[in-house]
Design goal:
Largest sheet: 5 strands, antiparallel
Number of domains: 1
Helix content: 10-25%
Structural class: alpha+beta
Number of strands: 5
Number of helices: 2
Strand order of the largest sheet: 4-3-2-1-5
Strand content: 35-45%
CATH class: Mainly Beta
Distance between the termini: 14 Å
């Protein structure tokens, strides 16, 4: 399952980032590290980007970017 599969209010734990180079580094710097809990806060009016809460920060990612983050869903 990827971060893109979650809906508003759902949470997940980061398992793996399937990206390389500067983009992977950027995701790690934003807090998307293995074991971090991520919550979907809201979708933009046109459904892209999506606002997430990770490590106390609000981060927006496009669907294409969120598909690169594997997660384990939480209740």
């Amino acid at each position: 399952m990827t971060l893109d599969d979650l809906t508003t209010g759902q949470k997940g734990k980061v398992i793996r980032i399937n990206a390389q180079g500067p983009f992977k580094k950027r995701l790690l710097e934003m807090g998307f590290i293995t074991g971090a809990e991520v919550e979907v806060i809201k979708y933009a009016p046109l459904k892209d980007p999506v606002e997430y809460l990770v490590k106390g920060y609000h981060v927006s990612l496009r669907h294409e970017e969120a598909k690169k983050i594997e997660i384990e869903p939480r209740q």
